[in-house]
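subagent[fold] <- orchestrator: predict structure for attached chain, return tokens only, no commentary.
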Amino acid sequence: MKLLDNEILELHKIQNLLVFAAELGAANYAKTIKPKSDMISQNQAYKDFGETFIKTLIDKKLLDCKRIGIGGKTSTKHYSRLEILAAKKSFECLGLVTTKKVKKQKVNK
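subagent[fold] -> orchestrator:
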């Protein structure tokens, strides 16, 4: 049986969704076992996922911060790694963001 191009594309989408679900399941399990390990500081979130992406999630109300400490507004902001990962994978599935790093090409003068 020969598969058509659109059928191969659909199978690829299903495969990506299954991988996405498995990654989120693993992250959720890790959060259940060690809840503190799920929380990362704002600086770590910027480093791991990109400052622009984190700010986009906050602007779209897809990510909430928790302040940990007794300093109130001066306490460090923390985010759930699981929430960020879920948003990132959702954006990837919708084709709104890519995780491939593009190498800068040298320009010959």
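orchestrator: received. Logging for downstream: The helical segments are 5-33, 35-38, 42-49, 51-59, 81-94. The longest helix spans residues 5-33.
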